[in-house]
Amino acid sequence: MTTATHGPPLETRSVTTVTVSDLQKNTPLWYKLHVFIYDLRNYREIPEAQARLDSIVDASYMGLPYFEVDEVDVLKGIIVVSDDDDDDSTNTTLDSVIADT
């Protein structure tokens, strides 16, 4: 039995703090995130969304057809911090960030 690896272990991955504005400036990636979240939300209702999600081989669901390998590496290594948070310790989930836009 072989074990699939999905990048370096979490403790060795570099972590970059990215603001919501930083993500929004990367228009292609921002769009792909919206499509990905849309498909996750509509998995049962839309057969095309189910087919796209079922085609992903990565256990984290981060991969083709939604994201290229280099985009997955970026997404797995970021912490999303809202631009308007006064407290740096307040992290925002990507799902809630996208829902607010």
Structure commentary:
It is built from 5 helices and 2 strands. It has helices at residues 20-25, 27-41, 47-54, 69-76, 94-99, and strands at 16-19, 78-81. The chain has a two-stranded parallel sheet. Helix 2 packs across helix 3 (47-54). The protein is globular, with a radius of gyration of 15 Å.
The helix fraction, in percent, is 40-55%
Structural class designation: mainly alpha
Low-confidence stretches: 1-12
Distance between the termini: 43 Å
Q: Encode the helix/strand succession as letters.
A: EHHHHEH
Rg (C-alpha, Å): 15 Å
The mean pLDDT is 74
Shape: globular
What can be said about the biggest beta sheet? Answer: 2 strands, parallel
Q: What's the gist of this structure?
A:
The chain is mostly helical. The chain contains five helices and two strands; from the N terminus they run E-H-H-H-H-E-H.
